[in-house]
Specification:
It is a single chain. This protein is an all-alpha fold. Helix content is about 70%, strand content about 0%. The model has no long low-confidence stretch (mean pLDDT about 95).
């Protein structure tokens, strides 16, 4: 297995950008969502990047893939919460589309990167 410097991985860099976008957005959520969607979306966005970083330290691709799968799961969870926010009119359609496009691009890149790793190693 080749070691990966997570700070140089495009998927980690994109995940960090999503965290920034997420925190800007969740700060605009209603106060009654402080302990609901706001906290959950913040945790999800941080989980995406954190799992990529943690997985990059593992000795085998097999173990790294597990963390990438967890990261991908958090990305889908975050997207679901974004959809809920849109359906509750917490953001405009334009902002929704921008954030949805970003998270879907990240999901695709995580999946593609995972496919380059050897699950038998």
């Amino acid at each position: 297995m080749r070691k990966h410097n997570f700070k140089k991985l495009q998927i980690w860099l994109l995940a960090i950008e999503l965290i920034d976008d997420n925190y800007l957005f969740t700060a605009t959520l209603p106060d009654y969502e402080r302990y609901g969607l706001r906290i959950q979306m913040n945790r999800c966005s941080v989980s995406i990047a954190s799992n990529i970083a943690e997985g990059s330290s593992k000795r085998t691709d097999k173990h790294f893939i597990k963390f990438l799968d967890d990261s991908l799961g958090s990305a889908y969870e975050w997207e679901t919460q974004l959809i809920i926010c849109f359906r509750q009119n917490f953001l405009s359609e334009e902002t929704f589309k921008i954030l949805e496009d970003k998270v879907q691009a990240l999901q695709s890149k995580i999946s593609n990167f995972t496919d380059t790793l050897d699950p038998n190693n």
